[in-house]
Structure formats: structure tokens, C-alpha cells
Amino acid sequence: MSVVASRPENPAVPYTIPQDAATCKEFAVAVQPVTSRTSSVSSYRTNYTTSTAPTTGYTPSSPASSYRQFDSVGSIPKSIESVQRRIPQEVYDVILNNLEVLHKAPHQTGCTTCFHRDLHALSLTCRSWERAVRGRLYTQIHIVGNDSPAQLKRYRLKRGSRLKLLRRTLRERNMLANLVRELRVPQMDLLFTTTKQSAQWQEYRDLVASVVMVCPNLERLLGLSIPYHHEFDRLTHALSTRKRLKEHTWVLGEAVEATELSPRDDSCPGSLGPSQMFEFLDYHVSWGNLETLMLYGLNGNGALEPSIFLRMFDLLPSLRNLCISSFNKDAFADSTLLCLPPLESLRLENLPGVTDAGIAQYAMRPESQSLKSFILVEQNIESLLVISKLLASLRQLERFKFVQSDKCPTLEEEGMVFQPILASASLKYLHWDVACPDPGTALTQLDSLPFQQPPKQSDTPNFHLAQSILAAGFPWLETLRAPNDCQPPGALQAVCRPITKGQALLRPDRYSLPRSSHGSVSIRPLALPAGNNLTSSRIRAQTFIDMAIKDTESGMPVLIEDYSDKYVPDNALLGNFEEEPEPEIDDYGIWEASERYKHDPPRVG
Fold it and tell me: Cα–Cα distance between 186 and 253 in angstroms, integer?
């Protein structure tokens, strides 16, 4: 097939197909004459006269032309539009997915704002691209960073100018408002305060509420956590009307003084009055699709009671993920834990009313068998057998996080220990951050070298976990994260696979090394940093690796032979390398061979 494009002044360019004309009619394109509106791309033709205008012949095998072969601007969109209409949406999705990876991948320098800016640029190219990126632009709206000072001055606001522009756009185009599923807004400074909220804060909160009201299908509001003191506010009311909401966070503070006293005011001081209780529960009536709920008691005083928790859970039939944190023993106790509905993930944090017996009983209930993720943070569990029963009872558990920095769980001294004490047939991810029995002297004296086999006997949680892993207690375990692997030192690190290239440190970690080491890992002092932060954990891990390398006496001799010529080193014929002293690099004749290549280079046959 051959196409010839010329540049006459008046007639249109004919497009002929010599063969298979009947089957290729849809590809015929008639180029229209130049109109008054010319493109900047075709303006080059003014440099030529009519007699010297170039004529280009194009075939599929010829190289691409360096300039456009069309004079009319109106003909270009028509030809492109006919092709783009036949491109399926899946092709656009692949392009947009790769563009998102370039911006949001872990080792990339882009951000969400840059990604949305590129999407907006694509939407301005043509209608096909506008339809393709419309969902990506408005399904997840993330407003990150500070507002422009020029916009703030224009709208006479101290913050929230972008929210005001977004509200105007969504009000004018209901089709775009129906696409919004997730909205992230900037956080307000000094949010968690028990004092009376300022007028500036109330104005910003009402602005966010007005944006929520124009998004009928909103599922998540991120970036803004509002303390709720059991009094009316517009944002909480706006969220309660979103029937498709899937995620919500309650930051519950002390309730304002109620006109009616609670029936349990004597046994549970600070409880809600009847009207406050009814208003709080009424917010959950429309949340039939809510899947994730986070409850946080501000300053440990959530003003709730067990009956309110139970009624609230009954109003949420789709609840799958639950987080409960910082409630006193009168609000949330073992009795409330045993009445939880079936969940997929559960997080319990800083709940004094939840005891070891309550956790063990909950693990035996049928409602807990659907758990795939369980997190215990600062629950002060005393017995390690509670964790053993928990892991053995939850048959579908895949992720388990145990963080406890104040109290070390132990075993009975007179009891008999059979390994594995800790075992799970389904666990894939384990975060183990448990306090040491003697944290003051855990790293000052290394009684046993790291990775020593067999390890020294120790009655610590880290030692029992390491022995349980060696005894095949976790057959499907893929990831172990132990930031407090101190007693015994490196016990959990020893049961894991070696780190790639033996480097546990990141580049920024070298700035945290002691000054006496001068940034060098090999000459730093043996005084290891304590604590469970990740930087200290990586420094300790790298120290254990270096100590194990120095203490290892066994090795394997490595011989590098060069077959580029017929030269063979004399000591390459020796069979016993262990009895010979360590050779220098010139003993293998490498420098001698390189000097010979300068005068007599090898021939290439």
C-alpha cells in the first residue's frame, strides 16, 4: 500500500488504495483545504514558494517525516478521533497504571500531586483522553500541602482555597461529584485540644462538611480527625448522611455537661446522658456499608460504656476491620471483647480492662475464627502461654503484631517446656517487639556470640520464639520483624535468611553511628544502641553480622583462572590450598600477564 501526500493550494489531496479497496474503505481520509485557523506546526510552508514546496512520498518502509503532512487543522482531529474511538479503555488503563508507578513507586521521586497534574494535562489533549482519565482524577481526590498564598488572598481565606474551588466544580458538574469515593484534606494544626475550638477551626470544619455534602458516593474522608465531644457539628452530621461510607474514625473526648444524668453516672462517672447516647448511636444508622471503624478515647476518657459499644456494633452489619484504643476499664472490658462480631482484623491498644483471660477466651470463640490480622499493643500480657493459645486457636490468622515495651511475658518457672511453644500453621507476617527481662544489661555484656550454634539457653520471649521457628512452628512464615532483638543478642536474626550482600544499614543510618567510629561500621565501638527504633535495630543487626564474619574460621578457597591465553599459574596446579599462606594478588601472575598483553596482545581467531 502506497500513499502520496502533496501540497496543492486549492484541491484536496486524494487518498487512493490500489488493492483491497472494498475492505479498507473505513481508512480513507480526505484532507480538507487550509482554513483561516492554521496550526503552528504547518506554518513552515510559508518559507516555501508554490514551485519549491516539498513533496513527500511515504511508504510503510520509509523513514518518518520530520514535519506534518497535513495543512488543515480540522482534518487532524478527525483522523485521530476515528482511531481513538476504537481504542478500548483497557489500553488507557495500562498507560495510566504505568504512569502512576512512575510517580508513586517506592524509589521514585514523584508524588500524588504530580500524578494528578499529569492526568489533568492528558485530559486537555482530546475528548478520548478526558473520558479515560476522568475517573482517575475524581475518584480519589488528595489535597496535599499548603494552599497558594495568591488563592488565599483572592478568596479572603486563611486556609482551604483549593477546597472552595473543588466545591464549586462539584456543584456545577454533578457527574464528577458522583465519581468521588475518597477525599483527603489537609490536617488542621493543634487539632487535639480540649479547649474551646476557635472560629478559624470551625470555619475550616464547615468548609470540609460542605464538600462532603456534594459527594453522595463518598466512602472515605482522610487526613482530618475531629475530636467529638458529643455535641452537634456540621462535619459529623455530613458524614452520617453518606450511606456508602466504608471507613470512619471516632476521636472521642469528654462529653459536655448533659442536662440529663446517665443512669450509670454513679458506677461509671462521665457517662453520656440519654439524649447524647441516642444522638451518637443515630449517626451509625445509615452506615450499613461501613467496613472499617477506629475508636480512640482522647486522654483515656471516651465517655462510652459497654452497652453503647454493643448497640453500635449491631448497627454495622458490614463491619470487618475494628481498632479500639485508649479506653478505661469501665468503658471496654473483657465482657465487651467477648461480644464482638465476626471480624477480619482486630487491633487492641492500651485497654486496661482487657486481661490475659479475656484474650484467651476470645480466641476460643467462634466469632474470632475469621480473623486474618490481630494486633496487640501495650496490653501488658503477663504469660507467654496466652500468645501460644492465641496463635494455636486462630486457624486463619496471617498477620500478627505484638508490641509490649513495659512488661515481659514469661513462663512458669517449674513448668516443663516443649518446643515449639509458639506455633501457627497459617501465619505469614510476624511483628515481634517485646520487652527484655533485663533491658539495662542486655547489650553491655555479650555472654554469647551472635549466631552461635547451639545458642545459649535463655528464658526470654525472643529465645522461645527463635526455638519455635527452628522447631518448624511457623511453616508459612515469610516475614519476621523484630526491632528489639537484644536478649539474647541476635537470636531472632540468626533464624532468618541472610541479608543481601550482608548490609543491614541504610545510607542515612551512618549518621547515627557514634562519633568515634567516624562513620565506619568496622571500627565502631561495641557499645550498641538500645531501643526499638528502626535505626538502632539496623545498627545492632549490622554489628552482629560483622561479629559473625570475624568469628567464622571455616571458608572455601576461590581460584580465578584466565583462559584468554595459554598461560597457567604455577600454583594453580597445587591441590592443597589450606596449607599455603594467603597469596598476594601478584602471586597468580595477573600483573605479569597484563604486561605481556601490552607487547604481544592475544590474537582473535
Answer: 22
pLDDT in tens, 524-569: 445 677 778 888 888 888 888 887 777 665 556 666 666 666 655 5
116: closest CA among 128, 106, 103?
103
Q: Kindly list the domain boundaries of the chain, sorted by start residue.
A: 1-86, 501-551, 558-605
Percentage of the chain exceeding pLDDT 70: 68
Half-sphere exposure of 470 (CA within 13 A, CB side): 16
What's the grid cell of residue 497? 535468611
Cell numbers found for residue 263: 443512669
Give the SS3 label for residue 64: coil
The span from the CA of 482 to the CA of 506, in Å, is 17
Q: At what angle do helices 127-139 and 112-123 cross, to 10 degrees?
A: 150
Residue for grid cell 502461654: 385
**Residue 230, φ and ψ in degrees, nearest 5:** 60, 45
pLDDT of 376-385, one tens digit each? 999 999 999 9
The answer to whether the CB of 477 falls within 8 A of the CB of 471 is: no
CA–CA dist 571, 587 (Å, integer)? 8
Q: Which three cell numbers stand for residue 315?
A: 448497627
Overall size of the chain counted in residues: 605
Output DSSP code: residue 33: P
| 475: Cα within 13 Å, side-chain hemisphere | 2
Tell me which H or E stretch contains 470: helix 461-470
Query: 147 and 162 in contact (C-beta within 8 Å)?
Result: yes
DSSP characters over 542-586: HHHHHHHHHH------------SSS---GGGG-S--SSSPPPPGG
Tell me: the pLDDT tens digits for 303-323?
Answer: 788 999 999 999 999 999 999
CB 476 within 8 A of CB 423: no
Backbone angles phi, psi at 275, to 5 degrees: -70, -40
Q: What is the amino acid identity at position 107?
A: H
Q: Is the pLDDT of residue 510 over 60?
A: yes
Average pLDDT, the chain: 78
Closest CA to 353 of 329, 377, 379: 329
